[in-house]
Structure formats: C-alpha cells, structure tokens
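call fold(seq) -> tokens
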Amino acid sequence: MTEIPRERLTGSLRRAAVKKHVAAIHVSGKLSLLQRKLSNVLLLNAYDTLTTQRSHQIDAGTLCLMIGYNSNDMATLKQSLKGLAETVAEWDMLDASGRPEWGVSSLLSYATLKGGVCEYAYSPALAEKLHDPKVFALINLNIQRRFTSGHALALYENCYRFIRTGSTGWWSMEIFRRLMGLDGSSYYESFKHLNAKVIKPAVAEVNKTSNIVITPETRKRGRAVTDIRFLIKENPQLAILDLDDGTAARHGPVYARLRELGVSDRLARQWLTTHGEDQVSAKLEYVAGRKNVSSMVGYLSAALSGDFGAPREAPPPGSARAQRLGRMQAAAQARTPTQRDADKRLFASRIEDAAARADFERFGWMSALNARAILTFWEEMDPGIYDGIAAD
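ret:
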C-alpha cells in the first residue's frame, strides 16, 4: 500500500491525531455490537485489496468464528449484513490538497451468501477512504471479541487511533453523540443521561477489556457541558494484545531485505509484527539456501506459516495424521496473508496454557503441543476438510 508522503499533506491532515474531523467517518444509525464487529472483520479481510478489487470474499463459517457467534446461525448473519448495507457512512474531512471534502455512501454496497461464502463490496469512494491509514486504525480482533457493549467498542475504536498522541482532542458533544451512534436521540442530549448510561459504563469496559486505559475530561460553557475528550495510555496488563502497525520496522535491515525480495510494505510490516525480526531473518536465510524455487516470496510465506525447516518430528508419511496435517496446511496456505494472520490470532486467543502458547508462537500450525486443537480448529473453519481419511 502506498502512503501519501507526510510532506505533501496540508492543514489538519498533518496533525491527524489531534484534529477531530481528520479521521472521522461517521456512521449513521445505531450499529449493534455484532454489526460493529462484523464491519471490522469484513474490512480487515478486504484491506489488502480494498482499492484493487471490486468485491471481496470470506467463508461464512470463518466470518462467524471471528466475530464470536454460532457459525450455524445464518439468519443472524444475514440480518447483520443487511443492516450494514442499509447503514450510511458520511465523511467530512480535508483531502491531500487541504480542500474540504464531504461524502456519503452505504457502508456496504452489496453482500451475498452463496455456497457457504460471503461476497461483499464497498463503493469506490468509501473504499478509498477506508484504505487511508490516517483514517482507519486497525483493530485487534482478539480484543474486539472481548467486548460485550456496542458503545464500549465504538468508544475504543474512536480512541485507539489516538494512542500515539495520548489524547483524542476535543470533540463537541454533537460529534461525540454521532461517533457513538446516538445522534437523533433526545434522551442523550442530556449530559446527565449520556454520562450515566453511556460514557461511564463504556469507559469502565474499555479500561477492563482492552489494551488502552482512557480518562474522560469535559469542557463547559456556563453549566452546560459542550465538549469532551479522552486521555489515552497503554494498559500495562493487556498491552501484549496490542497490534502494532509495524511502522518502526521500516527502519530495520530485515524489512529492507523483504522489500528487496519483492514483499509489499504492508505484508513486510505484518510479518515482522507477527513473527518478530529474528524469526523472519532466520526464514530469509533458509529460503535463500533453497534451489529451484519459482516464487521466493511465496516460499517465504509458506516458511513463516508452516515453519519449514523447524526441528520437529514429522508423522510417518502416508499416516492418517500426516494426511490431516497435509490438508490443514493446504487450507492455511490457500488463505490470503491477512486471513492467515487473523487465523493465527484467532487460534492463539483460545490457548490458555503458557507453554502451549509459546510453542504455537514458535512453530505455528506445526506446534506439537497444540496438534489436536489445531486439527479441530481447522475442522471448524472448513467442515469436511478431513473427509475420506481413515482414523489412526
């Protein structure tokens, strides 16, 4: 993904973490918690090809798993997709030349469910805005799944993008109500009601559930509250769940080697964030020593996902377990880089034992300590994946 050079930005865009309108894509209506989670997962799935493909696909079972509800409940999924297609997104911001730009679009231009696959699309104008890293803050799906309140998740999303500056900056109460999906409600025009029913509970859940801690501050004119902002700092208890955008990795030698190999900027940062410089560097050395490789980037991707060359005891060739592992690896490799990253994060979120977690972080889908759970996980992701394989 090519980012607009900072020196070309003018006006508030140069201070994207301070000015309230820069990163604001307001969503009309009241998205439910499930719809908000669904919207994030669909965007994450489409992000790498957001501006180059007209439509995007994700298998419905995976989609349900990633947002945390019963994968057989297609009726709920249909209603949630319908709600996103009926929801209006509005933006009012500055373009790269500093000129005001207003726009409006449905959140999804269409969505279909066919053969267990969800296909969907964004309007070209909205896709362009969502693809701008200054507008969209990538939300960690492991954290998202922990939220039980739509207001809390909405507050988290709108605060997290300002983590680097430590404050959201001042929002008028009108803007804040719109960000929280509360505009048009006369009940919440009263700050007393808004604070008691929305702000306090949402702040408490964000601080308990997520990787940031926020503190609200208000500004008054006379006795009326006119503006609100949130001070933000990392939650030391949950900071490990944070999804770094990998910006700092651009300055390292491993990143440079990946780029020379032809790996995209976003994928290089994603690999470094997920696997760490040491592991990526080791895999680069391993891949460099292979001969007759048609695609170095593809082979490196497989090495990182499957941990080729790791000193693990392989099952006997032709055994039922080897066949299941083979199908599991093929299914994992068939996923896009973004999906593969999401798959690993989703599985890792289920591991409670520290040793098993460490083994998975090191060996990925070839983790011996998680072998049974991994095979079960992929059967949930792809029902029937092991059909025809005899039991051990």
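Confidence is low (pLDDT under 50) at residues 1-24, 239-247, 309-314.
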